[in-house]
Amino acid sequence: MRVFSGIQPTGAKHFGNYSGGFRQYAATQERGEAFFCVVDLHSITVDYDPAALREQTLDLAAMLFATGLDPGRSTVFVQSHVTAHAEAAWLLSAVASYGQLGRMTQFKDKGDGREFVSAGLFTYPVLMAGDILLYQADAVPIGDDQRQHLELARDIAERFNARFGETFREPTGIYPNVGARIMDLQEPTRKMSTTGGTPQGTLLLLDPPDVLRKKIRSAVTDSGSEVRRGDDKPGVTTLIDIMSVATGETPGAIEERYASGGYGPFKADVAEAVVELLAPVQARYAEVRSDAGELERLLAVGARKAR
């Protein structure tokens, strides 16, 4: 099986990125030939500083390795180092529908209220389709918020194949059973995000342990003290999902264990589970990121393989 996924280097990475992305990458690299890409070209659709973007690209590469990607098993590279990605975006734009691009919810969210909205922000889903289709990916491990983009990639592949002959595979998504979309701890009807979320409601992967504990202790919960998942309890549902991701325990088992314990002990245990999960990630990240030369060497090797 051929696996591909990509992640943008802008914004500090948070628990939602880990749940929907990083942990899936590490798991799926065992299932076949795997390609994982730091999609820096996607990051230039909004205002950016080139020097900062280069550093953020290395930061993200270090996090990919820290969360379990093995450069001996997976091809890890930077999107702009493989020019075929930009070329594919232009070629595939000829079979992408203007109307379909206009319906992309992320375009509407990111463009809403901006004085200047770049054409790149509108067309970048075509670049994303190219990212995936170039590698003849069978499967794409992603979070729930990327379903619409993957469907566009499938539509583009189908349309291209119909016009020009069988060329691209039509990939399927791999979504986590739990934690496909982690919500903000302070506003649990919105997804966790460093750009659209709240600072106190976003668990950053590099937050110190005491900061993680404080954020989880102050998480918004719901009326009553029953620890259970449900549409009427988005705050508690988010905490249950976070604990399930951190421990591997099923949401049902967590609900049963804390059925009558109240929110206080539950939050404390969620916090400790997250701290325990992230401690080795943070240590590995510090080690990998401290050697920029080796990090750049690994990415150069990955780019050669990808090309």
List the keywords.
single chain, about 300 residues, mainly alpha, 12 helices, about 50% helix, globular
Explain what this protein looks like in three dimensions:
Strand 2, helix 2 and strand 3 form a beta-alpha-beta unit. The chain is built from twelve helices and five strands. The protein has helices spanning about 15-30, 50-65, 85-95, 100, 105-110, 120-135, 145-165, 210-215, 235-245, 250-255, 265-290, 290-305, and strands spanning about 1-5, 35-40, 75-80, 140, 170-175. The mean pLDDT is about 95. The protein has about 300 residues and is mostly helical. It is globular, with a radius of gyration of 20 Å. Helix 2 crosses helix 11, helix 3 (about 85-95) crosses helix 6 (about 120-135) and helix 6 (about 120-135) packs across helix 7 (about 145-165). The strands form two sheets. The chain has a three-stranded parallel β-sheet. Strands 4-5 form a two-stranded parallel ribbon. The two termini are about 20 Å apart.
**Kindly, what is the distance between the CA atoms of the first and last residues, rounded to a whole number of angstroms?**
19 Å
Supply the number of helical segments: 12
The global form is: globular
How much helical structure, as a percent, in the residues? 40-55%
The main β sheet shows up as: 3 strands, parallel
